[in-house]
Design brief:
Number of helices: 12
Order of helices and strands: EHEHEHEEHEEHEHHEHHHHH
Strand content: 15-25%
Distance between the termini: 64 Å
Length: 307
């Protein structure tokens, strides 16, 4: 398929998320994008009337088209189908129950997708661009990983958000999302992307546009991949096995996937690590997050009266 240079494809996988889908798609259409764009809704076997009607409503919006899977195949298969069907040079995932920020003050310097695509236009060594996420719904506030990411952090199991913008060609070259990775799929995709570029000798810079430009809905009504009960070590090992050469090089290791996976998981940032990374980036933001989450630092020595 021929892609359109400088355009952006927004892939919106949807399974029975009709209560939120229209809001998600409208948040893209209302971005006042300067570049050509399309919204590819991938209907992953939805079977409730609310969702089917919502999909039909969205299909009438400008730049929106619908790709229907005959039966439910899972979130990652739907994402892959959307990227494969995309017609633009750059791609971004938007979950059907999330949305892009549309507040005018936040967009005064341009939309996040436009600015991300501009970076990728001008910086061939940049692998992908990310922004920070703001939670809304049952909880309001920044996600705990709201600070700039880089390759070294990804290798050590740093969270990678859904909302990265990357080149479609890179996404296809890395094999897209792995359906076998049942959880932490965004991190796994980022690793695939970086490892593929590493093998080609391309740069792996990661750029951040602060925002927050992506809004993550917190609720319990819709089943999410992040809710699944899955062994994180097993999923990490799958990712390391697939990209063993990349992890061995970046971690300066010669041992096998099982050993490296365990080490990678042990290096995953704790909540306190995340807060300290955030404080190093924006102290005021970190203070707000600490207050929102009611962070405390307990110590086994508190009974001795040591402050």
């Amino acid at each position: 398929m021929t892609t359109t240079h400088a355009g952006i494809s927004f892939v919106v996988p949807c399974h029975n998320a009709g209560d939120y889908l229209i809001e998600a798609v409208e948040s893209v259409v209302e971005q006042s994008l300067r570049r050509p764009y399309e919204v590819v809704i991938v209907d992953d076997g939805s079977d409730d009337d609310t969702t089917l009607k919502a999909i039909d409503t969205c299909a009438e919006m400008p730049g929106v088209r619908v790709l229907r899977l005959a039966q439910r195949q899972g979130h990652h298969v739907a994402r892959n189908a959307g990227v494969a069907a995309a017609r633009m040079e750059y791609v971004m995932q938007v979950d059907a129950d999330d949305r892009l920020a549309t507040e005018p003050p936040l967009l005064k310097h341009g939309s996040y997708p436009d600015r991300a695509a501009q970076i990728l236009d001008s910086e061939p060594d940049t692998a992908f661009v990310h922004t920070m996420s703001w939670m809304f719904g049952a909880f309001e506030g920044f996600t705990i990983s709201s600070y700039p990411c880089h390759e070294d952090l990804v290798v050590r199991k740093h969270h990678v958000p859904t909302s990265i913008v990357c080149r479609r060609a890179d996404a296809l070259a890395c094999g897209l999302y792995d359906p076998k990775v049942l959880k932490w799929g965004d991190w796994a995709f980022a690793v695939n992307l970086l490892a593929s570029r590493f093998r080609r000798g391309a740069g792996n810079d990661i750029r951040c546009i602060v925002g927050p430009f992506y809004e993550y809905r917190v609720h319990s009504r819709v089943e999410r991949v992040s809710d699944a009960e899955v062994s994180e070590l097993d999923m990490t090992r799958l990712v390391v096995e697939k990209n063993l050469d990349f992890f061995q090089d970046r971690l300066d290791r010669n041992d096998g996937a099982a050993e490296i996976a365990l080490d990678v998981l042990e290096q995953k940032p704790t909540r306190l690590d995340d807060l300290l990374y955030m404080a190093n980036f924006d102290l005021h933001q970190a203070q707000i997050v600490a207050e929102q989450r009611e962070f405390t630092l307990s110590s086994p020595y508190e009974t001795l009266g040591i402050p």
